[in-house]
Design goal:
This protein has about 260 residues and is of the alpha/beta class. The chain is built from 6 helices and 15 strands. It binds citrulline.
């Protein structure tokens, strides 16, 4: 039986467009270079495809500067998909743009109608539960609505906290396999992963936490040698992907795809 939390046959990505220079960011770390981002994005897509998965690549959406970060628009589960309601107003319209592609892939499509908000980056699906971090983008009402929707598919939601000043819950953690989570110390120290095996990012490498396990590979941002070495020593097949341009917009590996 495939493990639905990290074994996937399909992914959806969206190419970045010129408007990426207007993407949201917590602090100004310089203007993202579109050409370099396109190269990194192509490496990312090629690595997903190398696992044998089908990758549906959508064209840029110039009206939505953050549309490359497709993860925030939906929660993909084996039984169906839930369309999100992003807390960032400038990103809310991305959901309607993504919906037709998801409807073509899934029979069962549910949606968060509000008044709450929730973004996919705050959701970590493990073998046993769905963890959702309350953040500046995801509130309790959004989490409560998700909880009701996915109960019909037998999923349990646990509300946790995204650390203050951190964009999304998964900015600080990723699932490595059925029982193992990669996390920053600041997040793991909250106790939210008690009962799981936790591998910490290396000191000074918090930004390595936004990785993804996708079939046989762990994709992680390049430039974090301590964390990459720890993961390799633990037996993971690590692929390092350039992320310098997405990082200027607080984006990492998970944000760039929907996986199912
Ligand atoms: C934003 O602030 O919404 C984008 N600049 C970055 C979104 C990253 N998405 C994610 O972590 N899932």
């Amino acid at each position: 039986m495939p493990n639905p939390s990290f074994e996937f046959t399909r992914a959806i990505t969206r190419k970045p467009g010129g408007s990426i220079v207007d993407g949201l960011r917590a602090e100004d770390l310089g203007t993202p270079d579109l050409n370099l981002m396109l190269q990194h994005h192509a490496d990312y897509v090629a690595t997903l495809r190398e696992t044998g998965a089908q990758v549906i690549e959508l064209p840029p959406l110039e009206a939505f500067p953050d549309a490359v970060f497709v993860e925030d628009t939906a929660l993909c589960l084996p039984q169906g998909v839930v369309l999100m309601r992003p807390g960032a107003e400038s990103r809310r319209g991305e959901v309607a743009e993504m919906a037709p592609t998801l409807r073509a892939q899934y029979d069962d499509v549910l949606e968060i109608c509000g008044p709450g908000f929730i973004e996919g980056g705050d959701i970590l699906t493990t073998e046993r539960e769905i963890l959702v971090g309350r953040s500046a983008r995801t509130d309790s009402a959004g989490i409560a609505e998700l909880t009701k929707l996915v109960a019909r598919w037998g999923h349990t939601v646990r509300e946790v906290h995204t650390p203050e000043g951190v964009l999304h819950f998964k900015t600080d953690c990723s699932l490595l396999d059925g029982q193992t989570i990669l996390a920053t110390r600041r997040l793991a120290d909250t106790g939210c992963f008690d009962g799981y095996r936790v591998i910490h990012t290396a000191p000074g490498e918090d930004a390595a936490a936004n990785a993804i396990r996708f079939n046989q590979f762990v994709l992680m941002p390049a430039g974090f040698p301590g964390t990459a070495a720890t993961l390799r020593a633990s037996g993971y097949d690590v692929r390092e992907i350039g992320n310098s341009e997405c990082a200027k917009l607080d984006g990492g590996m998970s944000c760039l795809s929907l996986r199912f």
